[in-house]
């Protein structure tokens, strides 16, 4: 009887050891997705070796779990962002860049996805594609557009069927009044494929518009694409200083302030209730920030935390 008990104990120990070794081998081959700044060296899908430190920070609140940060991101800034993002539900990305000091930036996310569903912020890329089409003369902005009944999804209080409107007016409706029918007229006149191609030409490789505006989402983008595009606009590297300043003028009048809702100073922005991008000039600081979330988020709270951190820097 004692021999049977002893033999059973040996078998149990052997099984436990085998399970432990299998678990260790599995852990060694796990991958960690790191969302990175395009100018930073990022450990993309790197194999985690035993004893290495994961480049992750936690918010201290289990609701959003962990956020992965890109290598060389400012950890103090990243922790500030994660703390203010603690109530965000679902997937999100946040990127920040100091436009006076390239060493100060942060990129973080709680998902391994390169891009996320997006809505109104994608009008930024329609805006860029419009000005590019006018610049290369593939679109004659002097020729009015005659509205068709099929252009007016769900009716429209401003646009009327069989009436002709200038593209300048349609652009103003898209940006200042967030008129989705006007946005879709411009989008489809240029063509979604052309708009997406233009976005990629300007470095927004994770951005794609797949549907008309009017629903929660019209395509996908990333916070990195938004921040890099805003940076290039500020630096006059999209279509040249003169045209880029016109685009910034449109962004200065966008009604939804998003991340910049409570921020003073000079602000260029585009946003809805889920996503936002902005360039901020305040107290001698100039920086750009963006957030992409697939659920409603308190963008103002996150923007305030970023702004407070930035203006405290020497």
TrEMBL record:
Keywords: Hydrolase, Signal. Residues 1-18 form the signal peptide. The keyword Hydrolase applies. GO terms for molecular function: beta-lactamase activity. It holds the Pfam family Beta-lactamase2. One of its GO terms (biological process) is response to antibiotic. Residues 94-291 form the Beta-lactamase class A catalytic domain. PANTHER family: BETA-LACTAMASE, BETA-LACTAMASE-TYPE TRANSPEPTIDASE FOLD CONTAINING PROTEIN. This is Serine hydrolase. It comes from Lactobacillus johnsonii. The lineage of its organism: Bacteria, Bacillati, Bacillota, Bacilli, Lactobacillales.
């Amino acid at each position: 009887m004692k021999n049977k008990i002893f033999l059973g104990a040996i078998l149990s120990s052997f099984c436990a050891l085998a399970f432990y070794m299998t678990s260790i081998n599995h852990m060694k081959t796990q991958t960690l997705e790191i969302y990175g700044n395009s100018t930073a060296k990022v450990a993309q899908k790197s194999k985690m070796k035993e004893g290495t430190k994961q480049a992750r920070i936690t918010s201290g609140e289990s609701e959003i779990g962990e956020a992965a940060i890109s290598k060389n991101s400012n950890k103090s800034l990243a922790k500030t962002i994660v703390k203010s993002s603690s109530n965000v539900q679902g997937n999100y990305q946040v990127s920040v860049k100091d436009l006076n000091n390239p060493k100060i930036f942060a990129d973080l996310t709680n998902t391994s996805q390169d891009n996320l569903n997006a809505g109104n912020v994608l009008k930024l890329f329609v805006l860029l594609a419009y000005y590019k089409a006018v610049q290369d003369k593939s679109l004659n902005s002097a020729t009015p557009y005659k509205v068709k009944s099929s252009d007016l999804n769900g009716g429209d209080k401003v646009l009327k069927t069989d009436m002709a409107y200038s593209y300048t007016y349609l652009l103003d409706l898209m940006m200042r009044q967030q008129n989705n029918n006007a946005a879709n007229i411009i989008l489809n006149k240029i063509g979604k494929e052309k708009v997406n191609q233009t976005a990629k030409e300007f470095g927004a490789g994770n951005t794609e518009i797949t549907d008309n505006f009017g629903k929660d989402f019209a395509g996908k983008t990333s916070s990195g694409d938004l921040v890099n595009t805003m940076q290039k606009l500020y630096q006059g590297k999209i279509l040249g200083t003169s045209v880029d300043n016109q685009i910034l003028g449109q962004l200065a009048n966008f009604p939804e302030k998003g991340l910049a809702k409570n921020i003073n100073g000079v602000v260029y922005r585009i946003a809805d209730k889920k996503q936002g991008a902005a360039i901020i000039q305040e107290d001698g600081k100039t920086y750009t920030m963006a957030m992409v979330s697939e659920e409603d988020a308190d963008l103002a709270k996150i923007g305030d935390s970023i702004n407070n951190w930035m203006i405290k820097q020497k």
